[in-house]
Amino acid sequence: MWADNETLLLDLVKDSTPLGRARLHAFLLNKGPWSRLDEVRPFNPGVPHKPEASNFYPADSTKADIEQWVKALPESQQRKATGFYSTLRRAPDGKLIVVPFSVEYQGELAQAAKFPQAGEQVSRRRERGRRQRPERSG
Q1: What residue spans carry the region label Disordered (predicted)?
Q2: What is the pTM for the complete model shown?
């Protein structure tokens, strides 16, 4: 994930030209503006090379910076900093902090929370349809 993915996606959705539609299609297939089949090169103008951090830690940090910071943390904090359910960000004072996904993506999670009810309705309709189908005789 890239910090500007959402902005770029919204711009692509607005572009109704054939080239814009093609770029949107490629963006959706690749889940971002880099071609997985072309050595992860950007296919949209103005898009930089894919960040090494993939938005899991600040773009102004290097992998070495992060590793050094993590090593200086107490062991319990190291597990949180390197866990699957957190990102690393800069606090207002510029220091690195661990941010749980539940905080980092709270807006997206709130939107996703609206969908289980819709999924449940679809599942019920499918199940009713299966029960109403006549059995095939062989």
Answers
A1: 112-138
A2: 0.55
